Amino acid sequence: MRVKKYTAPTMPEAMKHVRKELGDSAVILNSKEKNTKGFLGLFKKKNIEVVAAVDPSPMQQTKSNRVKEPNVNFQLDHQPSLNLKQPTQEPSSHDQDLIKEIKELRESLKDSSQNSNYYPKPIDSIAYNLKHLGIDQDTIQELMEPVLTEYYTNRKSQDTSAYWQIVKDQIFHKMESATQYEQDARSKHIFLFGPTGVGKTTTLAKLAADASINQGLDVGLITLDTFRIAAVDQLKTYAKILNLPVEVAYNHEDFLQAKEKFTDKEIVFVDTPGRNFREDRYIEEMKQFVEFEDHDELFCVLSLTSKEEDIDDIYSKFNGLSINQVILTKLDETSHLGSILNLWQQHQFKIAYLTTGQDVPDDIEPPSPQRMTDLIVGDQS
């Protein structure tokens, strides 16, 4: 058996090399995607690595000079099992080459199953921890690029603290852009959107309390969430405690009348229905119901206790309303916050506020790059 490894940019190209050298009778034993490290870890390219084998013409053997063939058992998971028994005579050069090739194949397959990222040991430990924190593989690969550069230019140092700092610096830089939200001074109507259960009404009360108590602004409240009686009662309770006027709008005409009543207010917070965000017609209905003005502020409220796939879907749906800033809630109810970085990488939204509990108005804060970095990676050393 002749075993050989081929590397090419694509599988069809790799197969061309296999057929050219081994012929059409060649068998593919294993294939995998592999990144070339490039210079100092930079300019990596994705290649396909293929291990192929072909059984050449059998050797002519005589009864007096026959050597027992090595017993090679390729199992279904492509992990070869080699059982070399003591031959009656010294193996021929052909057999020695065969044994060598099979050993190399075994090591190749073993490495491919145990180390899929091909990172050096100290770098691999960081990548493993980032994955455990909920950061996806594409983002990890991006974060590892400058880390690998440092590794090879610093004589392959095993001290991971410097590498962790490089990771944190990158995340900090990303979060600088993510936290650059500034409210438009021309904005008067602030809308909060989001599905049921994300803490939309409580968050609206926190924002209203901060505007009224801490900023001294004249505030009004409007709720469109008439599908749930509890939501109306909840906002009315907050309004009574904060001594703020509240209007309930059941239709478009009610909403226009409520806006008219609050023309003298400096800022008006609007609570929207927490309905099934997966229904496309909901977004169109909201556009017709409200008729947004140019300087209206629209926030998407996202709960960090939701699955990352659901958060992504929620934001994508509500982004049809020209939302570009989010409020992240229930920060205190989850421990894995890598999804924040994954979602930001994809949508590039502004993070306006973080909320951590039910207390009004205390449990809300504007984010900072350092705060976000600490939330995403924690105290790694």
Please give a handful of descriptors for the protein shown.
381 residues; alpha/beta; Rossmann fold; eight-stranded mixed sheet; 43% helix; flagellum; FlhF
CATH class of the largest domain: Alpha Beta
Order of helices and strands: EHEEEEHHHHEHEHEHEHEHEHEEH
Number of strands: 13
End-to-end separation in angstroms reads 49 Å
Tell me roughly what share of residues is in helical segments.
40-55%
- Summarize the main sheet: 8 strands, mixed
Determine Rg (CA atoms, Å): 31 Å
The CATH superfamily of the largest domain appears as P-loop containing nucleotide triphosphate hydrolases
**What share of residues are in beta strands?**
15-25%
**Which consecutive residue ranges, at least 5 long each, have pLDDT under 50?**
58-86, 112-117
How many discrete domains? 3
Q: Which structural category fits the helices and strands?
A: alpha/beta
Based on the coordinates given, report the CATH architecture of the largest domain.
Answer: 3-Layer(aba) Sandwich
Overall average residue pLDDT: 79
Number of helices: 12
Tertiary shape: elongated
Subcellular location: Cell membrane
Family: Belongs to the GTP-binding SRP family.
Domain SRP54-type proteins GTP-binding: 187-378
Main location: membrane
